[in-house]
UniProtKB/TrEMBL annotation:
SMART domains per UniProt: HTH_GNTR, UTRA
Any one GO MF annotation of this record: DNA-binding transcription factor activity
The protein's name in its UniProt record: GntR family transcriptional regulator
Origin species: Kocuria soli
Domain named HTH gntR-type: residues: 1-55
């Protein structure tokens, strides 16, 4: 029913109607709804009801661009550029890049037109021009420039959305978000590596989830 009759944002019919339509018990309906909520297909809104959720993108903690993650989730990726400028870098970026200045690229990333993340990236100066097409994949541009990302160190932590990020993401300030702090590297021909960028990507917790396989 969700796939064939309802669209994203539509409200789910009441329990009585679902019981009559599918010929099952009220308990079965409640269990089914709870399962779909846990899978991110439905979302409950207090005092309003249950609605069809937007698709939730998933990260497997591997090296993939935002565009790849969105397409893997069946969503159409798009980007709105907020800042592109050479600026004084923050301490974390300076420590990684070894430069006091860096190319700052701050972008709002969307899936099917819905805000998913704010990416604040500091790229080693001289790698990419200011007039590059910043609505496309950063990893793709770096690869074309001979600085493809081959390794990254990443930390993920739960944070409260800042007022600035919340305004871009369409959520309340202080709402829970997932913050990805990443240091990326590119391999040199001699086997050494060089730092490429430092980024902080803030994801809406209701639009993004982590998935990993744990082996014994």
């Amino acid at each position: 029913m969700i796939r064939t009759e309802l669209s994203v944002g539509d409200q789910l019919p009441g329990e009585r109607r679902l019981v009559e339509q599918f010929g099952v018990s009220r308990i079965t309906v409640r269990h089914a709804i709870a399962q779909l909520v846990s899978e991110g297909l439905l979302v409950r809104k207090h005092g309003r009801g249950t609605f069809v959720a937007h698709g939730m993108a998933q990260s497997r903690l591997h090296l993939a661009s935002f565009h790849e993650d969105m397409r893997a989730a069946g969503l159409s990726p798009s980007t709105r550029v907020d800042v592109v400028a050479e600026q004084d870098a923050p301490p974390e970026a300076v420590a990684h890049l070894g430069s006091d200045r860096a190319l700052r690229v701050r972008r709002l990333r969307l899936g099917d037109g819905v805000p998913v993340s704010v990416d604040d990236c500091w790229v080693h100066p001289g790698l990419l021009p200011l007039e590059a097409d910043w609505e496309t994949s950063l990893y793709g541009m770096l690869s074309a420039a001979g600085a493809g990302i081959t390794r990254a160190e990443q930390t993920v932590q739960a944070e409260a959305a800042s007022p600035e990020d919340a305004a871009l993401l369409g959520i309340e300030p202080g709402a829970p978000v997932l913050a990805f702090h990443r240091r990326s590297f590119s391999a040199n021909p001699d086997g050494s590596e060089r730092p490429i960028d430092y980024s902080v990507s803030v994801y809406r917790a209701d639009r993004y989830q982590l998935h990993m396989e744990v082996l014994a």
